[in-house]
TrEMBL record:
GO terms for molecular function: DNA binding; zinc ion binding. InterPro entries: DNA_Rcmb_RecR (IPR000093), Rcmb_RecR (IPR023627), Rcmb_RecR_Znf (IPR015967), TOPRIM_dom (IPR006171), TOPRIM_RecR (IPR034137). The lineage of its organism: Bacteria, Pseudomonadati, Pseudomonadota, Betaproteobacteria, Burkholderiales. It comes from Parasutterella excrementihominis YIT 11859. SUPFAM superfamilies: Recombination protein RecR (SSF111304). This is Recombination protein RecR. Residues 80-177 form the Toprim domain.
Length: 203
């Protein structure tokens, strides 16, 4: 059945969500619009509110509706550790693994020169500033073990070792399979990788 107008627009928007294919999008759209509309209204209002109030944390790039996110403003985290991840989704997986209690810095993606994504686009200048704060003693590079994630890890470690030779730079261990995204790795593997992190060899 071909959809037109507002329903088609809704289905089209839902199809863009991660893990939602055309059939699921159709199912969700009809579920939202059938009968009682309270769920649909709640979703619409929550989405609108979030898009207006949520922004990047000034310190780590996490998403927050305060000035600083909960990880940056918490008094119960180890200031000497700074873990670098590619996305908020990766941060969430590391948090769920319960293997880390330091601070975070979220890159705005990973280096992809062919797509025009360079050091500036992923926020390496902001990272340089953050990692240079005196309380930071160890930077843990937790980018994915994909080609782009590895290239990003290399660029980060080159940059930081050049500017801050006293800083300990570690990379989460290879328990995470080659080519794997942190986001889709199970939390036990991530916990192991964090515990077995290694000091980066200078190449
Ligand atoms: Zn933050």
């Amino acid at each position: 059945m071909e959809q037109i107008g507002a329903i088609a627009e809704l289905i089209d928007a839902l199809k863009k969500l991660p893990g939602v294919g055309p059939r699921a999008a159709q199912r969700i759209a009809y579920q939202l619009l059938n009968g009682d509309r309270s769920d649909a209204n709640r979703l619409g209002e929550a989405l609108l509110k979030a898009t207006k109030t949520v922004h990047r944390c000034a310190r780590c790039n996490n998403l927050t509706d305060g000035e600083l996110c909960s990880y940056c403003s918490s008094h119960n985290r180890d200031d000497s550790l700074l873990c670098i991840v590619e996305s908020v989704a990766d941060l969430m997986v590391i948090e769920q693994s319960l293997s880390y209690h330091g601070r975070y810095f979220i890159l705005m993606g990973r280096l992809s020169p062919l797509n025009g994504v360079g050091p500036h686009e992923i926020g390496l200048d902001k990272l340089l500033e953050r990692a240079g704060e005196p309380e930071v003693k160890e930077v843990i590079i937790a980018t994915s073990f994909t080609a782009e994630g590895e290239a990003t890890a290399f660029a980060v470690s080159e940059l930081l070792s050049k500017h801050y030779p006293q800083l300990k730079l570690t990379r989460i261990a290879r328990g995470v399979p080659a080519g794997a995204e942190i986001e889709y790795t199970d939390v036990n593997t991530v916990a192991q990788a964090m515990l077995n992190r290694r000091v980066r060899e200078s190449d």
